[in-house]
Design brief:
By secondary structure, this protein is an alpha/beta fold. 45% of the residues lie in helices and 14% in strands.
Length: 1916
């Protein structure tokens, strides 16, 4: 511890005092003074102590005792001596600069650091504190609004359910239940994690909240009542429901989940309880309440109290409160007439709805219709009313209803005089005096408003950019209403229209009333936004035709109630009710143009139009004003002034409005609805009164109408059928389609003469019918016996006929400024994506919108103002003026422009963050898994640092949908919920995001285009905005293509993309800031994750043109950290670290790595052959175990065969090793081994034993089959043994109930007697199994499922046993196996891989549809695609892909080869043989060559050969050839056939080989029997291989060879009788490195691979194999099974699919065979074969024709024409993986694809030539130029390295054509020129420079050459 003197010495230099004496003593008269410091001349001293200043002995004595008092003492000495302190002062210059720049946090940090060093006595101590005070004030003033969440105590969900039940009571005395499901991971309830139940009896509420052990709900909250199994939980739930009426919120979704759950566990639907949809019932009572996403939200909007005094309440309390409220509401608030009407609507139930036992996997289950008892509870009425009651109610209400308007009042004292906008808007002006409105003067707003004021008296158009936040709407409303002009204000969307009407206009009118100016305003929308009362009345009149489900009844009842309370008639008020089918019928634009008199006067739209003609101000939308401009003449009395808000959208709106449509299938649907022909072709629809009218032959009007109608029906149906056929031909290459994404096509491609001419005839027929309809309508009142409601329906029909005929007729005219095109929509497909069900619409769209606006729009208005927050591009109005048709060069008509900047300080309030390492999506893939996963991962990181509060914008609904579950998986542990546009109506979603901070929620909202504009979320609710993709228009759309051509036709050098597309995109991009920064207090970060923003020149230009913000461009992690700091208020400096696109450098490809690393709980991988799907499965499994995410004993891996099971274990063991792999050994199983374990576990607990039939000894099973045949009266010719096994397999895999099948026999006896016998056969077989207490292979799965469905303890044990389940080859699962997985895997983490192209086990009962259905069976599944084949050589990949395409089997997953193999040029060989003997000779020779190859590797690996055939007998001759040539081989397969197939015979051959090896090596043999035989070999006493085998057989000690084996052995010996014994020596596997040739059927080798594959037997009848005799009978039986199935089959395969199963599978078998080859493939056929002793001639297989491509395949007649060369590429070498194939590095550090490209790049670099490698060009689609020279206006250099390849040549021709169409200069090199590189480069530069100098001049060329010289010098 320092002494006091040391402290004084330390701090003394700070004070600048004279040097003191230390340890000084003064002896006085009375006392001795001892000082630590003393100044004797001044008699001042300091000593230790704590007294105040004293005067002793003439000395001034100061005392101190610590550091602080020492400082005080020295400072006092300084004052006494008049010495200025030497203290180091603080320089506040930096603080001032930071403060002025608004970087308050940085300034605060600087001051605090200084303050930490100061003592309170420091002269700047006070200044520091003052600075801190000022800084804190500034931070507070500029801080965003902080919305504190409501402080509510946290309560667990099950505990809350219990509390709610205890504190509430129901006022309904009838017993009922309230049921809900719960999931902590997904509020959309994609699966049943837990259930909760309110059981209401006599008003009291008992609760039940339960889940299954280890479910996500239980892991999240242990307060649930826990059940050991799902089955136990389900049984308990059913018991508690007790068959009573049960209310569910959102019943349809929940019921689908419950039924799937019930079906999975019990094999039938949940039909023992009546379920009612409380959400729909509530909407009947409160139709305007749009927050129906949760019952709690509904209560909050309706202000229904459901919480306790602590503010707690869950869904049970909300639903009880809602039920209580609606019952009371029904009693007190609804009139008896209305209750009577609602009740009548809800009583209507469709007749004849049958229940069923099985369900389809996509089925949505409806709730039940309310019973009469419940209708009386909800709608108690004291009396009955007649059927006219509802109509009277409607008419009475709407007769009194005034149209929507607002009126300001005039002061009594009279005219207030002229008032300017300034007087309204300035400080102290009218608006600031209104107490209801907090207003502050904004200079930009006043300037903008004055400009609008100027517009009111100017003939020039005004184009004004009013930045976000200036108060644009009020800015134009004030001068509009002060003016005497009649003004129309238009907005882009209904939301913006409503915002102006409900928010801003009332403020301005309040101000006008304040100063006594009288004005009126109204709002009008398009026809489609208004309800048609007449249409609703007509629906009521034919109610039975419209109510098909309870939802329809609820909807119509809700609409009725709404119609009696609405003040607007806007359908947008009830769009949350859904039901597109009925809402469309109610829309005013679907009604006839003229309504019946009784409805016309009270029609909401007619009222709105009438008021709009009188009001001073009309708020409309763009579409409406475009329509009225079309209908009004030049001198028509219309609005004087037009103000177009959001004017950047007007071009698109005009395009939409002017586009004419022909919708043939809509016409067809409407006609079918009007006619409704029954099975006998009789008309039963609305037109029946006319078509069956008693005067139909005598009344000319009716007769003419009917004749025209039937002619129209025939013509329309015929044309639609033929047009659809043409469309299918046109779209035959479309392999994947999404109903949400129509496929556009050019009409010129669609028209063929017959379709075109028939369309003209159809147009004439439509015209004729329209005329006859008009005649009928005009005389309608004179017609007898025709219902009056028919007038409206026929009027609507006529309107649609005329509209469509206008669209159709326009398609026949060719106009340069219009484009004719179509859209095809896939409408579902039951055929596994092989043939789509299409509909289409044809369009005629104008191109020159600017010209139309100039001619038809602008002249209609005296004064025009076009305003928006985003109109300029880089400060210029030119692009938008051109698009608006305002680009006049005349100064008298040129538009007046003005920019009124936003008051927001974007530099301080906004951060723009761009991660430069995001991947580009592969344009060839519909969904790029790597891109999707990386996007989700980065968005998740940003969501975490922003604590939710995020809006992520997409341009594709598909990408948004794919990202949502992955994003949620990344955020599950962060308490952040991801919702998307598809999860609810827009307003409810925005409300939820806006309210999230107050409710303590963390929300990420995903949206597409409609969220880019009009979303207003201020304050803390939104702090991060993610833009995932630049919002370009779809460039391949026919309209965009036509616009491009039209635009460029206006000037030879016009750049459509740069001058038109980019500016439009830029304006959309600027709109994003309007979503994020809405007030001066808002702040936030915008993150752009589209790599084009930094890889493209236009991208960087867009970045620099955005509002000036703090900008960070860096790696993803740095960007995330920058966002975190910015949102935390820390100082952030702009930084630009440009980077290139990232490429993965991992053993796994990017796609594979995305899958292995995915956090998703359920993963489905659809993968191509050779794509590494099993490799990915094992990698993920190993990584999870290695990282301790999964315990080995909790992992289950399933596959199909014992061989695949063993291979999987070996691979896992090699990667994982040790105890972990051993712990997993028991859990790597086939499905049947798993089933057997379940059965044995059950047996052990019941002390019983189940015996299994031995498959290797099928005698017993065949005996049972024969007995079952006899019992059922079937002969063997009708059902042979093989077909019998198939029959049994179908039934077992379908899990049919034996009692149900027995009950079906009586019907089958009548309908299909053979199927009845098949049923008896199956039942007899199963009965015999039961008697003998044995089960067969298929019955094992059946019994395991029965145990899990019926035994709760076993269900509990097995469902909790495995936390992680991996399934390989899922496409080969049967329905029963899929059901078993469902029973085990609902709570597990699932990983499933499959390839539908490789589904080849349908004959065993597999269902490839399981793969497609997986996402429905296991909701919340993340789907991935692996489409790159790493196994096969390029030409084989392309050939196999072409085969699938031509065979009609391509299902959307396009397969590519690995780019690193792009240099391989080997072909596929088709070997044509005269007979099978010659085939055997040639194949044997090919095998010898193939075995001699050395496969690249370190060390090189021996080659393998697979010889594959469809059936075993096709390999017999090949086997003989191998034996005769001494080539060792092995026969593989469970059903192997062949000379060496028998293990006993093979043992003899191997023993012979071993003896030969010992003899050759000189080993001595003993005197044993075997030794004596060895001696004979050494003495050459055994002359042939056949003799040696006989000798060895004679000395065998085990059971001898008998039966078939004996015959086969004799054949083998005969074959080798003349062959030398040396032919056998290579069968010694230990001496020869293993057997490297495999003979097998194709089925047995699925999943295997060989360096060389030879496929034999490619003849018709062999491959494809001839259908078995009983095939058609088996198909019929499969249909019977599906109709009774209790498995996941669920009747989802159609009859057509069943008929095609066999032929489809044959194609896939061939595909599997060819894709086993890694380097070489030979496909052999033989014209003549001898099979089973009989010669036969064959035709070549049709598969060869479907596979043939001369650029990929070579035909061969002999071995000499087949080249089997040593491979150059080691495909096993992972190294640094590069998915793009760039493997050569240039001197500049860049990677390119080929050595030649590397040489060119190196030379360019040496010469200083600036180049871009493979930079995408948006004007050239789907093509990457090799090199572009940007300084020479992007001259293209292409290196043509593979022109000998026909496919490459074809692609190059397409590429060159694009260059020529774009007028691009391109120069080429080839491989020959690479030998003279310098000369070649010199030629390229000479040509380039000559062209450039000619076009741009010598001066510019010299400037470029100067830059190049500087680069060369810098390199040197």
């Amino acid at each position: 511890m320092k002494s006091m003197l040391d402290i004084l010495i330390d701090i003394f230099p700070e004070f600048g005092l004279p040097e003191p004496e230390t340890d000084f003593t003064f002896v006085g008269d009375a006392d001795e003074l001892v000082f630590l410091f003393a100044w004797p001349n001044h008699k001042i001293g300091i000593r230790q102590g704590n007294n105040d200043i004293q005067l002793l002995e003439g000395w001034l004595v100061l005392e101190c005792y610590n550091l602080e008092t020492a400082r005080l003492a020295l400072r006092k000495v300084g004052e006494l001596l008049n010495v200025e302190s030497n203290v180091l002062r603080i320089d506040f210059t930096k603080v001032q600069a930071l403060f002025d720049a608004g970087q308050y946090e940085a300034a605060k940090k600087e001051v605090e650091q200084n303050l930490d060093k100061l003592q309170p006595d420091h002269p700047d101590y006070g200044s520091c504190n003052k600075w801190l005070k000022d800084i804190r004030k500034a931070i507070k003033k500029n801080a965003p609004e902080i919305v504190k969440p409501i402080e509510t105590p946290k309560s667990s969900f099950p505990a809350q359910v219990k509390k709610d039940g205890e504190r509430l009571q129901s006022i309904i005395n009838k017993p009922f239940n309230i049921l809900g499901v719960f999931s902590p991971k997904s509020e959309n309830y994609e699966s049943v994690d837990a259930v909760w139940l309110g059981i209401i009896r006599n008003g009291a509420i008992e609760t039940f909240a339960a889940c299954v052990e280890n479910s996500p709900a239980y892991e999240d909250d242990p307060n649930w009542q826990v059940f050991g199994s799902e089955l136990e939980l389900l049984d308990t739930l059913i018991e508690k429901l007790n068959g009573e009426a049960t209310f569910i919120w959102g019943a349809n979704k929940v019921l689908s989940l419950l039924n799937q759950w019930h079906y999975r566990l019990k094999g039938q639907v949940f039909d023992s309880v009546k379920f009612y949809d409380l959400e729909k019932i509530s909407s009947v009572f409160f139709p305007l309440t749009h927050r129906t996403d949760h019952p709690e939200s509904f209560c909050k909007q309706r202000q229904i109290n459901f919480t306790d005094e602590m503010g707690l309440g869950g869904p049970l309390s909300a639903e009880i409160s809602i039920l209580n409220t609606i019952v009371e509401f029904g009693k007190t608030e609804l009139s008896d007439e209305l209750k009577f009407s609602l009740k009548k609507l809800l009583e209507n139930q469709p007749k004849g709805k049958e229940g069923k036992l099985i369900i389809d996997y996509l089925e949505v289950f409806d709730s039940d219709f309310l019973s009469e008892e419940w209708l009386n509870i909800f709608f108690p009425t004291s009396q009955e009313y007649n059927s006219d009651t509802t109509i009277k109610l409607l008419k009475a209400y709407h007769e009194k209803l005034a149209p929507v308007s607002i009126l300001s009042t005039e002061k009594e004292e009279g005219n207030s005089g002229d008032v300017s906008t300034l007087e309204i808007l300035k400080n102290g002006g009218v608006l600031s005096q209104l107490s209801s409105f907090s207003y502050a003067e904004r200079k930009e707003q006043i300037a903008f408003s004055q400009k609008i004021e100027e517009c009111m008296s100017s003939s020039k158009p005004f184009v004004l950019e009013a930045g976000t936040g200036i108060g644009k709407t009020i800015g134009y409303l004030v001068p509009s209403l002060l003016s005497k002009n009649k003004t129309y204000v238009t907005t882009h969307t209904k939301a913006l229209q409503d915002q102006a009407w409900f928010k801003d206009i009332p403020i301005v009118f309040n101000a006008l009333s304040h100063i006594g100016i009288k004005k009126t305003a109204t709002i009008i929308k398009g026809k489609s936004n208004y309800v048609c009362l007449q249409s609703y009345a007509d629906i009521l009149d034919s109610i039975g035709e419209h109510i098909e489900s309870p939802d329809d009844g609820y909807y119509l009842a809700s609409i009725l109630h709404w119609l009696l309370i609405t003040e607007t008639g806007w359908l947008s008020e009830v769009e949350h009710l859904g039901n597109w089918k009925l809402s469309r019928l109610l829309s005013r634009d679907m009604a006839p143009p003229s309504l019946r008199g009784e409805w016309s006067d009270i029609d909401p739209h007619n009222k709105a139009k009438e008021l709009a003609s009188k009001a001073d101000l009309v708020v409309a939308n763009h579409s409406y004003v475009v329509l009225i401009s079309q209908s009004s003449g030049q001198n028509n009395e219309g609005p004087d002034t037009l103000i177009v808000d959001e004017a950047h959208n007007i071009e698109n709106v005009v395009t939409e409005v002017l586009t004419k449509h022909f919708k043939p299938f809509e016409l067809q649907g409407e006609l079918n609805s009007l006619l409704k022909r029954d099975r006998k072709d009789k008309i039963q629809g609305l037109l029946r009164p006319l078509t069956e009218h008693k005067e139909k032959e005598n009344n000319e009007l009716i007769k003419a109408f009917n004749e025209a109608l039937f002619e129209y029906e025939i013509a329309l149906n015929s044309w639609c059928a033929n047009a659809l056929k043409r469309l299918r031909d046109l779209l035959s290459n479309i392999t994947d389609a999404d109903p949400d994404y129509p496929i556009p096509f050019e009409l010129s491609d669609f028209w063929i003469p017959s379709i075109f001419e028939d369309a003209k005839l159809l147009s004439e027929v439509i015209s004729k019918l329209a005329n006859k309809t008009r005649n009928l309508l005009e005389a309608f009142q004179t017609l007898s016996s025709v219902p009056s409601k028919l007038h409206g329906s026929i009027g609507s029909f006529e309107q649609r006929l005329n509209e469509n005929n206008t669209g159709l007729s326009d398609l026949f005219e060719k106009k340069n400024d219009w484009v004719h095109w179509g859209e095809a929509v896939a409408k579902g497909n039951a055929n596994d994506s092989k043939e789509f069900n299409w509909i289409f619409i044809l369009h005629s769209t104008p191109i020159d919108i600017a010209g139309w606006l100039r001619t038809n729009f602008h002249p209609k208005f005296k004064h025009e103002a076009f305003v928006s927050a985003t109109l300029t591009v880089a400060g210029s109005f030119d692009p938008v003026c051109i698009r608006l048709g305002l680009d006049s060069l005349d100064i008298n008509t040129a538009p007046v422009t003005g920019i009124f900047p936003s008051p927001f300080d974007y530099k301080k309030q906004a951060l723009l963050a761009v991660p430069h390492d995001m991947p580009l999506a592969d344009p060839k893939l519909k969904i790029d898994p790597y891109y999707i996963e990386e996007q989700a991962k980065h968005i998740a990181k940003q969501a975490i640092v922003s604590d939710g509060r995020m809006l992520a914008l997409f341009t594709s609904n598909l990408i948004m949908t794919e990202i949502q579950p992955r994003l949620q998986a990344w955020l599950n542990n962060s308490g952040i919920t991801v919702i998307s546009q598809k999860d609810g109506n827009r307003s409810a979603l925005v409300d939820r995001l806006r309210d999230a901070p107050r409710k303590g929620e963390k929300i990420v909202l995903l949206g597409v285009r409609s969220f880019w504009e009009g979303v207003d979320i201020q304050g803390a609710a939104l702090s991060s905005l993610v833009v995932t993709r630049l919002p370009f228009e779809y460039h391949n759309h026919p309209v965009q293509i036509a616009k491009k051509k039209f635009y460029e036709a206006g000037g030879h050098d016009r750049d459509y993309f740069a001058e038109y597309v980019v500016p439009a995109t830029f304006i959309h991009l600027r709109q994003m800031y309007g979503r994020l920064i809405r007030s001066e207090k808002d702040y936030g970060a915008t993150i752009i994750t589209d790599p084009r923003i930094y890889t493209k020149r236009y991208g960087k230009s867009l970045l620099h043109s955005l509002p000036e913000t703090t900008t960070v461009i860096d790696t993803g992690d740095i960007v995330v950290e920058s966002v975190r700091k910015f949102l935390a208020g820390e100082s952030i400096e702009s930084s630009y670290v440009w980077g290139g696109l990232t490429y993965a450098s991992y053993e796994l490809s990017p796609e594979q790595r995305a899958i292995v690393d995915s956090p998703s709980k359920r993963i489905l991988v659809r993968a191509a052959a050779g794509s590494g799907k099993t490799h990915v499965l094992i990698k993920r499994l190993v990584r999870l175990v290695h990282n301790h995410n999964a315990k080995p004993e909790e992992v289950l891996a399933l596959t199909f065969t014992n061989k695949a099971m063993n291979v999987m274990y070996e691979r896992i063991e090699s990667e994982l090793g040790g105890d972990k792999a051993y712990a997993m050994h028991r859990n790597i199983l086939t499905y049947h081994k798993l089933a057997m374990r379940i059965i044995r576990q059950d047996d052990s607990e019941k002390d019983q034993e189940t015996n299994f039939l031995d498959e290797k000894n099928p005698t017993l099973q065949l005996e049972l089959i024969e007995k079952a045949r006899q019992s059922s009266g079937i002969i063997k010719n009708t059902l042979n043994d093989e077909d019998a096994l198939t029959l049994l397999g179908y039934a077992q895999n379908g899990l049919i109930n034996e009692q149900e099948l027995e009950g079906k026999i009586e019907v089958l006896n009548i309908e299909n007697p053979l199927m009845a016998k098949f049923a008896k056969f199956y039942l007899a077989y199963v009965s015999m199994l039961r008697e003998k207490n044995v089960i067969d292979y298929g019955e094992a799965i059946v019994k395991a499922i029965r145990i899990l469905r019926e035994n709760k303890d076993q269900a509990q044990r097995w469902s909790n046993r495995f936390k992680w389940i991996f399934c390989d080859e899922y496409q080969d699962t049967s329905p029963a196996q899929a059901t078993l997985l469902q029973l085990l895997g609902q709570q597990a983490n699932l990983f499933v891989v499959g390839d539908s192209y490789q589904s080849i086990y349908s004959w065993q009962g597999s269902d490839p549809d399981n793969l497609r259905r997986f996402e429905a069976d296991f909701p919340n599944t993340a789907s991935y695609y692996l489409s790159k084949n790493y196994r096969c050589f390029p030409k084989l990949v392309r050939m196999s892909q072409g085969f699938l395409e031509r065979a009609g089997e391509l299902q959307g997953l396009r397969v590519e080869y690995d780019h690193k193999r792009s240099t391989e040029d080997q072909s596929v060989y088709f070997l044509n043989n005269e007979n099978d003997n010659l085939e055997a000779e040639t194949v044997t020779a090919v095998v010898k060559t193939a075995l001699a190859l050395e496969i690249p590797g370190d060390p090189p690996k021996p080659a393998t050969v697979g010889i594959l055939a469809r059936k075993w007998h096709l390999l017999a001759n090949i086997e003989r050839g191998l034996l005769k040539n001494g080539i060792p081989y092995k026969i593989e397969g469970d059903t192997a056939r062949g000379l060496l197939a028998s293990p006993k015979i093979r043992k003899i051959v191997e023993q012979a080989a071993n003896l030969l090896h010992r003899a050759d090596s000189g080993q001595e043999f003993g005197d044993s029997v075997e030794g004596k035989l060895g001696q004979k070999i050494q003495m050459n006493n055994i002359l042939s291989a056949g003799a040696l085998l006989k000798e060895i057989a004679s000395i065998q000690t085990d059971d001898g060879i008998t039966g078939i084996e004996k015959t086969e052995f004799e054949d083998l010996c005969d074959l080798l009788e003349k062959e030398p014994i040396s032919n056998l020596k290579h069968f010694n596997t230990s001496a020869n490195g293993g057997i490297r040739v495999i003979l097998s059927t194709i089925h047995s080798q699925k999943g295997e691979e060989f360096e060389t594959v030879i496929v034999v037997g490619m003849e018709e009848g062999n491959s494809p194999h001839e259908q078995p005799k009983g095939h058609s009978h088996l198909i019929e039986w499969r249909k019977v099974v599906q109709g009774l199935s209790h498995a996941t089959w669920r009747a989802s395969i159609t009859n057509q699919d069943l008929e095609r199963i066999y032929t489809q599978e044959e194609k896939r078998i061939f595909y599997v065979a060819m894709t086993r080859a890694k380097y070489h493939l030979v496909i052999s056929n033989s014209k003549n074969r001898t099979l089973f002793g009989s010669p036969k001639t064959y035709e070549k297989s049709n598969f060869l024709k479907l596979s043939h491509d001369s650029s990929l395949v070579k035909e061969a007649e002999s071995v000499y024409e087949i080249e089997i060369n040593t491979p150059k590429v080691n495909i096993e070498d992972k190294g640094d993986y590069r998915s793009d194939g760039r493997v050569f590095q240039t001197n500049n550090g860049e990677l390119v694809r080929s050595k030649s490209e590397m040489l060119i790049a190196n030379e360019f670099h040496r010469l200083g030539i600036l180049y871009e490698y493979e930079l995408p060009d948006d004007n050239i689609q789907n093509a990457l130029p090799d090199f572009m020279l940007p300084e020479y206006e992007n001259v293209i250099i292409e290196h043509l390295g593979l022109m000998t390849d026909a496919e490459y040549h074809k692609r190059w021709n397409e590429k060159a054509k694009q260059y020529e169409e774009e007028n691009r200069l391109y120069l080429c090199t080839n491989e020959e020129e690479m030998k003279h590189l310098n000369t070649t480069i010199e030629r390229l530069l000479d040509q380039t420079r000559l062209w450039y100098e000619t076009k741009y001049g010598k001066e510019k060329l010299e400037l470029i050459k100067s830059k190049e010289e500087n680069r060369r010098n810098s390199i040197k």
